[in-house]
Amino acid sequence: MLSLYAWSAIPSCYLRFGYDSSVLPLLLACVQSDSAAPVHDSPDDSGEEGVPSIVIIGGGPAGMAVAGALSSGRLLEAADVLGGRADRDNLTITFVDTPLQAASGIEDDPEQALARWADMTGGPPTDMTAAWLEASPEIYDRLVSMGVGFSTLSPDPITHVARLHEVSLEGSRITAALQEAIPAGVEVRTGTWVDGLALEDGRVVGVEIGDETIAADAVVIATGGFSGDSSVIEAITGGDPSFWPGESASGNGQALAWADQYGLGTDCEACVGWRWGRLGSPLAEQGLEVNLPPENAPWVWVNREGHRFVDETQNWSITLGSAWEAQNGPVALISAADMAGLIAGEAVDPDDAASWLPAEVLCADSLEALGELIAIDAKDMTDLRARLANADSEGTERPLQDPPDLESGGACAVQPGRIALKTFGGLAVDDDGRVLDLGGEPVPGLYAAGEAAGMLAPGWAGTNGVDGSLSAVVWSGWRLGALLAAGDR
Ligand SMILES: Cc1cc2nc3c(=O)[nH]c(=O)nc-3n(C[C@H](O)[C@H](O)[C@H](O)COP(=O)(O)OP(=O)(O)OC[C@H]3O[C@@H](n4cnc5c(N)ncnc54)[C@H](O)[C@@H]3O)c2cc1C
Predict the structure, then answer these.
(1) Which pLDDT does position 250 carry in this prediction?
(2) 426 lines ligand 1 (CB under 6 A)
(3) I need a labelling partner for 250 at 20 to 30 A (CA). Which of 256, 272, 323, 423 fits?
(4) What is the arithmetic mean of pLDDT over 332-337?
(5) Is 209's C-beta closer than 6 angstroms to any atom of ligand 1?
(6) Does 197 or 308 have the greater pLDDT score?
């Protein structure tokens, strides 16, 4: 189809998006200048002669990022609002080499992260991983320039380098900022479920919504991952319905369903990220799982044999999720006094405690009694506490600064649930975000971004991915948008 699109208006976008890190700042600048200078006034330019049309399916962060890099097109979202699964405040996001890290005296750069990449993710880094990490400061700066604030840092679970940046409540929500950045030339339709792709001679020429076909030169699948797909939930939880927190279309596995339907390639369908804490449970509602002070957590995580198996600062970690499988279920130990403090601090209604305590928390007056309840020897627990109190901070175990007093006053054991946060596999794409067919060839007219494109799949970052991968989701959308805006289709 025609590629007359805005070549003269956005000269810095002539470059094709590659992995030369020296080009990345330029390309991000290109994306920014592009969205600031819409080329077409009419949002409804689809089919207008000489104007290529782009349809994005899915208005989560990836789809919005693609839209924000265009000057015209259509964004179709099944839900009534944009935002996808990231439409919440308490997001924690991985960046390296940021001003916040520098201000906190933390030395971090892509090389450091890449050196430990296999440890962090279960797979070696790729060119894509390196490019994303190199772009990290620019992604961070761009989000900040859009009004998103980052306040606190917490350590990466494996390397302990503080590179998980928490979105501050003072700033904009990331999803709100991405939504505001969508230019007027992009028509946004919410409440619009896309049924399928329209194909002609092996080329994607549009999307189907009921009986309607919307023509497009380029279609972007940004429908999210598959961790909410019922077959995935069945496979990994035995069908526990509380495992998946959303009822929306997000995480529905739509991209993989289309892969089956249209013969598209896929990458690492088994890559599902996890998180502890069952949303919807009173514990999670009270924020108990996420309010652990990172450097001084009054918790000890042990496995069913009573061995400590992870650092307490790893409570956010996907690694913990993997550990669940390996360790037959972890338990967090906390002193009864600290638990009471948490409950008081979080204003849990004591009258209501009976309805949730037995399910999620077991408390006893003595460690021996608790040991019987959770089938872990009390001596193992006291040995563990002593070991932690004397742990060498340079070693593999980090000492707790304030180990919980499990011996006097009683102790509690918490058995968190688990939840699928995200997926690290999806449609097979090439380095430019073109969707590949089963033979590994690009399907003309079809692209993918975000979780639908397995933004941190093995090709990117290994089977476990990294925590805080939203920066990769957004980056994959911006870079694809830049590519499409440059007319490189
Ligand atoms: C509880 C929770 C906490 C999380 N916390 C973090 C965190 O702290 N840090 C972090 O980095 N990540 C976090 N994540 C993961 C992060 O939210 C996702 O990785 C991110 O939202 C993926 O973005 P996406 O745009 O690829 O997909 P999604 O956000 O899933 O968006 C996909 C969109 O496509 C729409 N859609 C699907 N099918 C169709 C269709 N057929 N037609 C039209 N529209 C369709 C959906 O309605 C949805 O809006 C969390 C996830 C959850 C569930």
Answers:
(1) 72
(2) no
(3) 323
(4) 84
(5) no
(6) 197
φ and ψ of 53, to 5 deg: -115, 145
pLDDT of res. 422: 77
Residue 332: closest CA among 256, 257, 251, 417: 417
DSSP state at residue 37 = S
The helix, strand and coil proportions of the chain, stated in percent and rounded to the nearest 5, come to: 35, 20, 45
175 in contact with ligand 1, CB cutoff 6 A:
no
More confidently predicted of 213 and 398: 213
For residue 28, the model assigns a pLDDT of 37
Give Cα separations from 478 to 17, 243, 396 (angstroms).
Answer: 10, 31, 38
Domains of the chain: 11-86+173-273+422-485 (3.50.50.60), 278-416 (3.90.700.10)
- pLDDT value at residue 208: 98
Q: Is the C-beta atom of 62 inside 6 A of ligand 1?
A: yes
**What is the edge-to-edge ordering of all strands in the sheet holding 196-200?**
196-200, 203-209, 212-215
Pocket test for ligand 1, best of 139, 195, 421 (most atoms within 8 A of CB): 421
Determine if ligand 1 sits within 6 Å of the CB of residue 444: no
228 alpha carbon – ligand 1 mean position (Å): 10
Report the SS3 class of residue 332.
Answer: strand
Please tell me the residue having the least CA distance from ligand 1 atom 16: 86
pLDDT digits (tens, 9 = 90+) for 429-460: 988 899 999 999 999 999 999 999 987 655 56
Tell me if 58 CB under 6 Å of ligand 1.
yes
